[in-house]
Specification:
This protein is of the alpha+beta class and 572 residues long. The protein is 49% helix and 19% strand. The chain contains 14 helices and 16 strands. It has a 5-stranded mixed β-sheet with strand order 2-1-5-4-3. The protein has a 5-stranded mixed β-sheet with strand order 11-13-14-16-15. It has a 4-stranded antiparallel β-sheet with strand order 7-6-9-8. A hairpin with a 5-residue loop joins strand 15 and strand 16. Helix 1 packs antiparallel against helix 7 and helix 9 packs antiparallel against helix 10. The longest helix is centred in the first third of the chain and has 66 residues. The radius of gyration is 54 Å and the shape is elongated.
Amino acid sequence: MRRKVNIPFGYKLILPYVLCLLMAVLTVGLFAYAHSVNSLREKTRENLQGTLRQMRDNIRYRTDDIERITNSLYYNYSLQNALRRYDQGWYSYETMTKTLMPALENLLNYTASNIGLSLYLQNETLPEIFYKDEEQNPLLSTKRYEIYHLTRIQDTDWYRLLQFSGTLPGLSRWQQILRDKEDGNISLLQRLDDVQRGKEIGLVRVSVQIRDLLDSVDYRKIGEYSTLVVLDASGRTVLQSSPEGAEEGNPRTAPDRLVLSEPLYGLGWQLQAYIPDSLFDQSAGEVRRMTLLVCLISALVLAVLGIWVSGYFSRRIQKIVGSLNAFHDGDFHKRIRFKGNDELAQIAIAFNRMGSNMEELIHKNYVADLQKKEAELESLQAQINPHFLYNTLSSINRLAQFGDIGKLHIMVQELAKFYRLSLNRGEILTTVGKEIEHAKAYVAIQCIKYGERLSVYYDIDPEVLEYATVKLILQPLIENALEHAWFGTTLGIRLVVEKREAEIVFKVIDNGVGMNADTIRQILAPEGPRIGYGIRNVDSRIKLHHGSGYGVTIASRSGIGACIQITIPCRM
């Protein structure tokens, strides 16, 4: 036969604690790590997105700067008046030298970037001014302006397909035309209108180098090993900023990267950033190491504390076990002394009380059985009260002699109902409704006996009628009032039945002579004198069936009446 392993209580206490401790520390640690990494990643993402927005705003500032140049031409009304004149000779020369050329010179100085300003006019009376460039990008050398006749470009594909959107002066668009793509330039094209006549008079083209427009796009502002890409509307790469040695081609195909994007309004382009996950892994590794260190220190401190607490309670439990073993051996004089007021101290107090009252409890157990039998016997005796029956039969005899058939009929009927409800087929429990009917039958008999000297009122909650109760609890209280409460020639009694949360409360209230505190104490005393026997009987039977928390209470003072209250639980 295998011997059972006896594990000390201290080990049983510390092992679940350690398991719970590890689970709690691991749960908190994992949650803290995941939350910290997510917060760090989200914060980094917000910072990077903010950097992209700043680049976007810088590019927007450059494009707005170029658009202000075209808008200045559009709202130059003196220039419009000059272009509206088709006079040749001196007037043409004067328009070129005093109006058109100075206006274009001023616009070139409006920005620090090298730009090319081209003006295509429908007025062919004005001469053309342009440069002949072979292969070199003209924007690499200096700022300059050119004047062409509109007929030079009217048959070109890009002009015929040119479509403007927006409202005045927003009839403009950014587009690469002629040699812009080869030279790395982009042009802002805006229609030039005669505002007064609502007629097109030309086209303005401002060319700028893409690298000047996008000079704020620098991968070093995002982070090492990151890549910045500017894509046009068709998804073609316009500009890419990445560290030396980085992969060429489309970085969107690279795995394990965070992709951020910002639209470049006006240009119709997209600014995209590709950040490798290694940028986050380094910070996540630091968070992981710090979380692990905090979890280890917390687990160590809590484990030491748990061992100390386990030893402290183990010693107290062992002391209780030793005392219980002494009880098992028949030594009821063993006592436990614990300082404090915790649960173990309460156990010690209860243990000491148990040892002191063991024999008394055994004695009370026999007494309780005797009281139960006595209560049952008294209940049976109360069901058939010879004195009440004798008085009622005497009243019936007198009514028969006087020929009062109506009252005689009522008394006989109520007496039959009274004893039918009293017997209750031999069952101890009945419903609240039947108990109230039993009390009303008794009251009806007594009202015939006392006539107008007795007044009884009822205040019954219909919600309580179906609940169960011990039978014969109201009639003894009403009988007690009729026997002892008379104060003068009249007596008023009020029967109240109501529900209070999970309890049912019965009240028998009279306006009689009342009782003093000593009389009330003697009535409710279990071993008191034989006064108020009916009330004490009701109280003992209720406590027998429902427990000591229920029963009869009396509130009264001499000369002002009495209120006898019964409380039972709500049970079906």
